[in-house]
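pinning this so it doesn't scroll away 📌
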Amino acid sequence: MLSPIAELDNAGPEIARLGWRSLALWREVAEALRADGCNAPLFEQHGSLMLAHGADLGAARRVLARLDTAPTLAAELPAPQPLDRAALAALEPALAPGLHAWLLPGEAQVMSRDMLNALAVHAPNVHWCWGERVERVEAGVLQVAGEGPVRFDLAIDVRGVGARVSREPNEATSVRPEPVERLSASGAEGQRPAQPERISSHSTEKIRGVRGEVIWLHAPGVTLQRPVRLLHPRHRVYIVPRPGDLFVVGASEVESEDRSPVSLRSAVELMAAAQSVLPELAEARIVHMEANLRPALPDNEPRTHSEPGLLRINGLFRHGWLLAPALVEDALTQVDVASRAPADPHPNPLPPAGEGAPCHRTAHAAEGPSLPRPSGERAGVRGTPEQTPESHQNP
């Protein structure tokens, strides 16, 4: 769910600005992949709905008030459009009557699973090394488990929680002292500064994981054209329609680095909240539940660090899908790869994409759930990644 306007519930104007810019970038990515032969639905932009039950109208008004108090931001984003009962029924007949509703024009969604697969398969001159663990990233060097240092012109570190400095086995995980559980679609607390801040090469020690949980439902015959977000003093639940009569419901936010399965409490609260706005989900079948960690810094704001031979992007918290294109675009303006190229080429260069020969170096540093194996001849593959129904993090 790409919802920069609704992010104002918990995030500052800069998050919304970056998110709004990313909408156009995601659309360009999807169009380029479609032109390259990808037929899967990757991106849809029909706006989204912000909903509130009558007793919880104040939660929605807070979001609207934050937009009103940011004049420069209001000039950049379309204003939420209030909908009466008839207008809401015309847009989404399956929603429960009596809800307060606002249309957020221009908001969108990206089909995360299909987008990741398409990006992997249609990446020319890329050799993917699945199942590799990068233990440390330094300027121009990846420390690959079992192989030692591997040198590159530019090392890009986007490992999320995996970028944190390794701890001793018995050392306690650093999280906030007072764990708080709440349901949230996205957004971050605090205001983002006018200019993006950089993260020092040692600030990864402060990265923490914030647990998030999502539930996939199969509900044939239930029609929803656009993502909806329910605002409530405690619950901020999104429901995102997917192709094939699927619905993604999420996402809890728990200050914990526990990767165990979805809790009973979260599952009950997420599904009950979803059914309260979309009653026909009562007969939906649960097909998948997933928990994962969002990488967050103490202020829940993303950071970019660049130096010769090294680029780090981390701390995207709940905004990974929303902000990624704009953050990458900004980061690449700081990087002049050509000026950093060594005089002599690397020995034993990577094989061309498509050969599928065993590789002895990894082209990127990543940790977390693996993508399904790309197919076709355009992506070299090593290893056997885990098969997952969806790569979680903010649908």
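📌 and the second one:
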Amino acid sequence: MKLLTCFFFIITIQTCWAEKSPVADSVRVKWKTEFSTGVNLNQSSFSDNWKGGGSNTFATGWYLNHNATVNNKSWRLISDLSMQVGFLQNKTQSLRKNIDRIFYEFKAGYRISPQMDFYGSTNFQTQFFQGFEYGKKNKLGIPVDSVVSSLFAPAYLTTSLGLEYHPNKEYYTRVGIGSLRQTFVFDERFSRAGLFGLERPGDNIRNQFVLQLLFNVERDIFENVNMKARYTSLIDYFRMGNPNSIVHRFDANFTMKVNKYLSTNLQAVLYKDPDQDPNWQFSQILSMGLVYRIIK
């Protein structure tokens, strides 16, 4: 919980810096913010090895997104917070979750040319609740529900320094030459088992020096239809000869605005982390619901 407190403290400091610092007064008025929150009706499907836990069914969910940007002659600053959680319950099943994510990223880019920045970024990811694999049989052939993840088990903090290329407003790519990926496992059930790539059973933190590659596209493909696609790979410098040295994650999000208060959203995630599972993991969610949005 100390790390969670520190995480929200960093967000608070970043907000206060934009609002109160005399040095930032000239920047503060240029912050552009967008806040949205809503509830959805979801249809979900997952691959058998999806480690976040899930079930193919209908469900309700809640989400909150906050994005703040600065774009001036010297700096490109981005603060991006995304939280999602959803639950389901069938008549023959106990309460289950079908989506669960906490994501925060802050990036500061200093312009060194019209299309190139030197950047530093911090990216944090975890989940709120325990994740389960349901109905797998034990050695006696009896179906059981197995805990496979929980809050800060795992959590990932990636700090990166490198170059960002952005030829236009719709596309950018980053090369994080100096990047540190930290894996946190604060649940003793997983720590003692040495899961999520921990070097020794009982460890709580794993540090990896990695090369980060990121490609991001955001554009309106039709009227009232927005597409966001993001691919990230992390390559462990000390395991480059090992075929299991690369973490891949591809996120695609399509949003159709029905009107001011209604929207339809399709999300898909393709993910491979050899320290979690040797195979690809897949998640797909189709949702429609109410949204409340503020843009400043």
